[in-house]
Amino acid sequence: MSLPHSLSQVTLDDTFEVSPFKDTYLVARAPGAVLAAALHALLAAALPAAARRTSDARLLGAALPDWVATVAPEELDAGATYALVFVEFDQAHVATALRRAAGGADVPAAPFRVGEIDSRSVWEAFVGAAWPCDARAVRAADAAREESEAQAALLAESA
Questions:
Q1: How many CA atoms, within 13 angstroms, populate the side-chain half-sphere of residue 31?
Q2: Which fold has domain 7-158?
Q3: What's the confidence (pLDDT) of residue 77?
């Protein structure tokens, strides 16, 4: 996967390339102490081979990167209750982490905004807001690329 060279020319196809699935979201409500313990464990643990989703040698065997959580465990109020929203694809992994952090007690998850949002619609909304593009510029770039490819084909035929 790669993002376009110019983020001003992101297309709908680009969003499908980086987020082709329509995972629904779940929400689990957990005390800050449990959530902090789960985050500490996840951020400190090396990824087992079965859980690796990358061939990047820099990440293999490394602890989870900082960007997996939007908050540091130390920033959580241990006495507060938090709503943890995550995609259904990660349900088993999240449930296991929360159960371990809660001393074996289940932390139930429920559907979140079903029918309103999914992982693809959230990504598309983000791309639209963060990387607005001018459709005319995209069409002009596509036309220029097609013309260049046509000229290259003509040159190849005449050679």
A1: 11
A2: 5'-nucleotidase;  domain 2 (3.90.780)
A3: 94
According to DSSP, residue 5 is labeled: S
pLDDT digits (tens, 9 = 90+) for 61-104: 445 555 556 677 888 999 999 998 888 888 998 899 999 999 99
Q: Is the dihedral of CA 132, 137, 143, 145 positive or negative?
A: negative
**pLDDT confidence of residue 2:** 42
In whole angstroms, give the CA distance from residue 37 to residue 74: 10
Write out the H or E segment, with its range, that includes residue 112: strand 109-112
**DSSP bridge pairs for 25:** 87, 112
As a three-state string, the secondary structure of 30-92 is EEHHHHHHHHHHHHHCECCHHHCCCCCCCCCCCECCHHHCCCCHHHCCCCCEEEEEEEHHHHH
Over residues 119-136, mean pLDDT? 74
The tokens describing 36, both together, are: 């902090």
To 10 degrees, what angle do helices 91-101 and 32-44 make? 110
Return the higher-pLDDT residue of 148 and 20.
148
Secondary structure percentages of the chain, helix, strand, coil, to 5: 50, 15, 35
